[in-house]
From TrEMBL:
InterPro entries for the chain: P-loop_NTPase (IPR027417)
Name of this protein: Orc1-like AAA ATPase domain-containing protein
SUPFAM superfamilies: P-loop containing nucleoside triphosphate hydrolases
Domain of life of the organism encoding this protein: Bacteria
Amino acid sequence: MPSDADNFLVDEIPIPAKSRRDMKAACDLQFELKGKDLERLRVDLADVRGGRVLDQIEGDIRDARRAAYRTVLFSGHVGSGKTTELRWLTHELEKEKEGRCFHVLWVDALEYLDINSVQLPEFLVAVFNAIAEDPLLRPLLGPSKTAKKLWASVRGWLKSIDVDLDLEIPVGVAKLKAKVKTEFGLQKRMRETLRERVTELMTDLSDLLIDLRAGLARGGIDDLVIVADNLEKIVFAELDHQSAKNTHDLFFIEQLPTVQRLGAHIILTVPVSLHFAHARLRQVFLNPTVKVLPMVPVHQARVPTKPHERGITVLKSLLSKRVDTAILFADDAAFARAIELSGGVIRDLFRIVLESLSLKPAMGLTVADIEAGVRDIVSSYERMLQGKPYLPGLHEIAACSCFPVGFDEAARNALLHSMVVLEYNGETWYDVHPLARRTRAYRSAAPAATS
């Protein structure tokens, strides 16, 4: 739920933006749609993404029996619009429908955690910290003996590593949150201290949720939903670990399923690469709802020269909601080229616009301006791909719109995580990002032409 302090873009600038400065603000990659911005600027992309995923998630939560809590594993590439869609889901869940409404607790990994290395102990503390900063839940902590007990325990445990926190929960939480983001290595030291206390943390958090649920009920709110966003951005790294091959397996497969015991509806964002371990996800999570938010297709599967007209149309609509595209682009060819080169990645479409605007002092971007605007992005893919052993395999993916049999698992995960390969909707198909295709590394690995 947006706070009173939120500044909405639609209140600051004319929408759609017409000036260069306003267009940059409207396409800012750090800009998150909330409140009035969400209602004005969001475009429903469900029809070109393989179905009404949000409606299914909302229905599963609303239709669940009391105390029969749902776990949702929600994934998609970085830049696919997951946060926007989860904000919209929050908006819908907090409405009263058929006599029921929910309060959504938002736990943003980027706000509460150092995503370079995350494990369960610090995630549980992040959930408590988010509760303490939630405008609706914070007042309910005062009367809760469980909240006081949990905070006293956390303070005591962290004092052993020279972290002194205030007795007052909101003040202490704000201090801890700032320390985690600014003190190198603190999160790891917290983890080592809290590792043996996970069971106690889980028990106290579960009891606290019972107190909160009772307080919400007094205000006419039926239940609580926890959304843990941006977890998929936790850094992927190979591990020399006895049971987990990498940081994602360790956190998402081995540790995170524990949170199902908290006793709440919970939506977790997970890396898209983990869906190749779909069977494992269903083994470690109890009857989860598993949903993927694919990219918007800009061409047909296996036929990159054949445009996906509906996908292109909705992306045009999405950008046109934010900026006056008749002023931004010199002609429709430039608009179409920007969409084509984005690969249907919403964030990349905005980035192409921003890069192109930065290089040209006047408005009216041409095809040549768009081509100039993507050079730095292509260079970043070049540095990423040079010398990689999987380069020939990228051409196989491009040819069949799939990962070939026997494709190396670690390489596949890395390609999806780095967005060199993108996932699309319908039958579920894959393609190499258009800007990765432009690299010398990719072109030089092309199979020899047969005579």
